[in-house]
Specification:
The protein is α+β, with helices and mostly antiparallel strands. The chain has 20 helices and 30 strands. Strands 3-5-1-12-9-10-11-20 form an eight-stranded mixed beta sheet, sandwiched between helices. A six-stranded mixed beta sheet has the order 7-15-14-13-8-30. Strands 16-27-28-29 form a four-stranded mixed beta sheet, with helices on both faces. A hairpin with a 4-residue loop joins strand 25 and strand 26. It is globular, with a radius of gyration of 28 Å. The two termini are 53 Å apart.
């Protein structure tokens, strides 16, 4: 076992424990960014001047009326920016734009003594606009050839030969919606300037170092004059990876210009209308199968809705392409990607970061094709799994490690869920109930862990031991409720060999750990855990030498377990506190900077080849649903999940992440329906679902009636911190089983072998129309098209025709 993966005697990792801030969360004692306003004197409040048009050129901006409003202190405009007027890493996001690019785009910001004064002042700012043509929908962007950014193409094998060798060829298209992050805490920042002009920003950000970088270039000052701290976030889900930077820059600019603290917080409607979402996608595809239903070739084009600027759309698209295979071996593939430019908010990172979109495409394809092939959907999926010992690689050329785990979790979830028995019960139920149908679907997940951009795969930490034996750890990761800080406390205590109560964790700050990566890509525990472990190992090695001198033995024979240093083969021991005190008096350094970089990664973005991922997280889910034939309403009766988290660092945290990720994924696929005004009227481009009253989120009523989560046992991951695996994003894709179960339940209203298309999100309305399609025959198993499925062109050829190249 590797040094990084090996666990010592009596580790604190692997112990189920509550979230480190759980008590503060439920009692209301936990502080978030905006809570700090009440502890700060003379705070000014920032409010946006939004233009409610989808696109237009600003021809005049008059602030006089706003400055006359009592309590208004200043109006920030582009003329006030001393550095670079841009809030993005691609330099395509003006902080103060001359051209409005989406409905609700802010062109100026008002600072007021109170939030109400700032609001009234913002309403008084006069903006003259020359309206310009706008593109709102993804379909319109495709029709208008409106694209931006890279257009990667991933190729593997010989696609044309693969189709020539296929017995069955199907073609189709699929468009599916984005998703609102809807974190409980909206975007927030609080900026202050000290007597030396240095800026300190409290920000609800997943990427403090990048917030620091953007603020420094907006202000035109070096990075060491800007410090960013993140106490914690009330949710992030990727929405606070890139988009907090410009908001923090507004607060920092205001503080610089006025010399007073500036508070920035979006209300819910502003957050929904100004911040990006998960990318919606459109896919066109052609797939070939042999006579046994094994995939021979795939040719697809994925179009992501990037919104008005690039943000993170390019890496999101890249990850979508890298995950279109999911758990399936595709010997011949050609997949092209492109980013549509629309006049909507700039879409951004969201849990899974393109992976869910790519994987949804292949799962939708298999769900649609299984009945046409006359094969059970579960069986079709299993036939196409990556297999051990076959030397199979992904379409981008990375060998698939641990392919046996795909089959292992698949079989275990069926055993745990008694799937065979329940399928017989469901068949009997459906035969007896013409107006209500049940279905059970099983889907798997293979999700690559690491940032696609290799440079981001590094982490840092600073660990301090005080004379009394207490320990303070700083690391570069941020806490958004996912339990990262809890795991880091466990990693530090385990590495040092001390009880957990001896360790405390400090808030994430750029002046403690520099140049950090975003807490994203499910890599928080891997990167920061490796760095914390490295720092603690440096300290432990120093202390072992001190202990050896006190115990009269060699350092290699000393072990520190549960806060006591002992020599092997001896009953002599030295308490941790005494050991630390002795080390101090011997002038031994009691602080260490730790560092970790993920080894073995390489990626060529131009050729779209390489091994961008350290390992793959594996999982499987079985979901049973019941659907009402009159309304399309449904309920999730039972969910069984088996998920591979390696050797869990913190099992209670990990199970919570699996449960939460699954429910959030189910929300994306079945409930959450973003809508914009696409008319040519005065509100064109307006987000219609801009409140919880119009945007449906999963709640207790959508929770499975029975929900069983099992972590795969004996699953040590070599080369990862204490043998663990990432858990943040992969469980979201387990929710594919919900959508596929709904598809199968809708198809059960039609003749045997009926194939139906199902919209995404699969709202009750969408399920109802799928049921109606099934009642009319859907798309039958012989490959002909019927009714609502007629838009899906299907070609079926015999094996003889395929082999002859017809």
């Amino acid at each position: 076992m590797s040094h990084l993966s090996e666990r010592p005697e009596k580790p604190v990792v692997g112990v189920s424990m509550p979230h480190e801030s759980a008590v503060q969360h439920v009692t209301g004692a936990a502080l978030y960014t905006d809570d700090l306003v009440q502890r700060t004197k003379d705070v000014l409040h920032a409010y946006p001047v939004q233009v409610m048009k989808a696109r237009g050129r600003v021809t005049a901006l008059r602030t006089g009326a706003a400055l006359a409003v009592p309590g208004v202190v200043r109006v920030l405009t582009g003329a006030d920016v001393p550095g670079v007027n841009d809030a993005g890493m691609k330099h395509d996001e003006p902080l103060f734009p001359d051209e409005v690019m989406f409905h609700g785009h802010a062109v100026a910001w008002v600072l007021g003594e109170t939030l109400e004064a700032a609001r009234i002042g913002a309403a008084a700012v006069e903006v003259d606009l020359e309206e310009l043509p706008s593109v709102i929908t993804l379909q319109d962007a495709i029709a208008a050839d409106s694209y931006h950014g890279a257009r990667p193409v991933m190729t593997h094998g010989d696609v044309d030969a693969g189709f020539a060798d296929s017995a069955h060829v199907f073609t189709g298209e699929f468009q599916f919606s984005g998703q609102e992050h809807f974190y409980l805490e909206t975007h927030a920042a609080l900026a202050q300037v000290d007597e030396n002009g240095q800026v300190f920003i409290q920000s609800s950000t997943q990427h403090p170092s990048e917030t620091q970088e953007i603020v420094s270039h907006v202000l035109g000052v070096p990075a060491h004059e800007v410090t960013v701290q993140c106490l914690r976030m009330g949710g992030g889900f990727g929405g606070k990876e890139m988009q907090p930077h410009g908001f923090a820059a507004i607060a920092a600019l205001g503080a610089k210009l006025t010399g007073r603290p500036v508070r920035f917080r979006l209300n819910r409607t502003q957050d929904l209308t100004m911040s990006g979402k998960r990318h919606g996608f459109h896919a066109t595809w052609k797939i070939g199968f042999d006579t046994e239903g094994r995939i021979q070739a795939l040719d697809a084009t994925l179009t992501a809705d990037g919104g008005w600027s690039l943000d993170l759309s390019e890496p999101v698209l890249a990850r979508a392409l890298c995950h279109i295979d999911n758990t399936y071996w595709i010997p011949n593939a050609r997949v092209a990607g492109r980013i549509a430019r629309t006049n909507t908010v700039s879409n951004t990172a969201f849990r899974g970061f393109g992976g869910p979109q790519g994987m949804l495409v292949i799962e939708d394809i298999l769900g649609r094709c299984a009945p046409r092939l006359g094969v059970d959907a579960k069986e079709l999926r299993e036939r196409n799994f990556y297999r051990p010992g076959q030397g199979q690689t992904t379409p981008y050329g990375q060998p698939v490690t641990q392919p046996e785990r795909i089959a292992a979790v698949w079989q275990q979830v069926q055993d745990n869920g008694h799937i065979a028995d329940r399928e017989r019960e469901i068949a009997a139920f459906n035969a007896a109930h013409p107006h209500t149908k049940r279905a059970l679907a099983v889907t798997g997940v293979k999700f690559g862990i690491s940032f696609n951009l290799t440079a981001f795969n590094q982490g840092g930490a600073l660990v301090l031991i005080y004379k009394d034996g207490s320990v303070l750890i700083n690391h570069g990761g941020t806490e958004m409720g996912q339990g990262l800080h809890t795991k880091m406390l466990q990693v530090a205590a385990t590495t040092l060999g001390i009880p957990l109560h001896k360790v405390r964790l400090a808030p994430t700050r750029t002046d403690k750990v520099p140049n950090t990566s975003a807490t994203a890509a499910s890599s928080g525990a891997d990167l920061n855990g490796g760095a914390v472990k490295n720092a603690c190992e440096q300290l432990r090695e120093r202390l072992l030498r001190v202990a050896a001198s006190q115990l009269g033995t060699n350092a290699s024979d000393v072990r520190i377990v549960e806060g006591v240093a002992r020599s092997l083969g001896s009953d002599q021991e030295l308490a941790w506190d005494d050991l630390v005190r002795t080390a101090y008096f011997q002038r031994v350094q009691l602080s260490a900077a730790g560092y970790y970089r993920t080894e073995g990664l390489h990626w060529d973005a131009k050729s779209f080849r390489g091994s961008p991922f350290k390992y793959f997280a594996i999982g499987a889910a079985a979901t049973e649903v019941e659907v009402d034939g009159f309304t399309g309403a449904y309920r999730i009766r039972r969910v069984d999940i088996v998920h591979d988290v390696g050797d869990s660092l913190s099992p209670l945290i990990d199970i919570g992440q699996v449960e939460g990720g699954f429910v959030q994924g189910a929300g994306w696929l079945t409930l959450e329906d973003l809508r914009w005004d696409t008319s040519d009227g005065p509100n064109r481009g307006r987000l219609l679902t801009q409140a919880a009253s119009t945007y449906k989120l999963p709640s207790f009523s959508e929770m499975p009636e029975e929900f069983n989560v099992t972590l795969l046992e004996n699953a040590t991951e070599e080369g990862a911190v204490f043998g663990s695996k990432a858990v943040g994003e992969p469980p979201l894709m387990l929710a594919f089983s919900v959508r596929e179960a709904l598809r199968q339940a809708a198809a059960a209203f039609g003749p045997r072998g009926t194939a139906v298309e199902l919209a995404s999100p699969a709202t009750p309305e969408a399920v109802y129309w799928a049921i109606e399609s099934a009642r009319q025959g859907g798309t039958a198993g012989d490959g002909r098209t019927h009714g609502a499925a007629a838009s899906d062109a299907v070609a079926v050829r015999t094996g003889v025709e395929a082999l002859s190249g017809a």
